[in-house]
Amino acid sequence: MTQPTIVRYGELQPCKTAFIDAHTPGSNLKENFTIIGGGVSESADQFVHITESHGFNIGAAGQPPKCRNSLHSHRTAEVFWILTGRWRFFWGRWGDAGEVVLEQGDIINIPTGIFRGFENIGDDYGMIMAVLGGDDAGGGVIWAPQVIEDAKDHGLVLAETGKLYDTKKGQSLPEGVGPMKTLTDEQLKDYPELTPQQVVGWGVRRYWDMVALAGKKPLKVIGAEGIIRDRPGFEVDLITRGSATETPHSHDRPSVLMPVTGHWRVTWDGGSDTLAPGDTMSVPAGLSHAAVPSMSGDAALYHIVATDDPAGPSSLWPA
Asked: For residue range 288-301, what is the model confidence (pLDDT) as tens digits?
């Protein structure tokens, strides 16, 4: 039977020109990683570690202090959890509708249809992991108009096809292909200015609170019955030392294991291996497996598996 595929943290291959703000001061030092699926990169330089379809995409962003990701939106879910560092997430047309600061293990499910950005406000290089709904991740990124305009001043042009061209490298739009049009004032009315109470109250959960809630069974973090009630085409569970079990189980579709803290020994029919924070394991459909901490101390991991729900707008947003 097919074996799991592991992408080690130390072997991740970054893309430094993944998006239109890659040359814009304040955003030009970020690194983007596509771990599973095609992701939403606008650059042909992006390396995909695992191309097999999972029903969702897994990516990551690594940034030094004071580096930010510019305001953008997605048509499907965008869930982040913090691997290392201290991060400020902000949202709204100009990024001033609200903000929240997250640290290791914290998770945020950002409602679809709003502009959002994030920056590393810690003292060292930080990494956040991302889960995007759908195999095609909603067809790409929708940028706030000012992001596209600012990028032009620094040599990057986004084509209407969604492909990025770098004039600093002598690239130009192909004949017959125009630049990506910015959203009109009328179109911008479809992007609401949600309050902090709406975004944080619905979509943010703190790591240590989740560890306490997990008890003796995995905690459903995102799902129809999750502590974040949403059906974005995938479910997210938090498995802790107290809720881990050596009893093997399997899924009818690929699943993903991503340690937050501790080292985890994963066994399956025909083998075993150990995962550390930052590693990503894709477990094939139908493969019986189990994961338990291999050392003492705090240990938790996120488990992601697709559902039959369509990837799309947040589906259980509170009335």
From this structure: 999 999 999 999 99
* Tokens encoding 119: 């920056």
3-state secondary structure of 248: strand
Final residue belonging to a domain, choices 188, 203, 218 = 203
Q: Print the SS3 string covering 105-155.
A: CCEEEECCCCCEEEEECCCCCEEEEEEEECCCHHHCCEECHHHHHHHHCCC
Q: Identify the pLDDT of residue 45.
A: 74
How far from the centroid of its chain's Cα atoms is residue 76's Cα? 11
Q: What is the pLDDT of residue 315?
A: 74
Do 223 and 197 share a structural domain? no
Cα separation of 29 and 288, whole Å? 41
Q: Measured between alpha carbons, how far is 229 from 260 in angstroms, rounded to an integer?
A: 22
Report how far apart, in Å, the C-alpha atoms of 270 and of each of 2, 59, 177, 179, 267 are: 9, 28, 51, 52, 8
Judge contact between 173 and 179, C-beta under 8 A.
yes
Pairing relationship of beta strands 107-110 and 78-84 according to DSSP bridges? antiparallel
Residues of the chain with pLDDT under 70: 1, 39-44, 137-139, 318-319
Q: Tell whether 52 and 196 lie within a shared domain.
A: yes
Q: What's the number of domains the chain is made of?
A: 2
Token code pair at residue 276: 């550390």
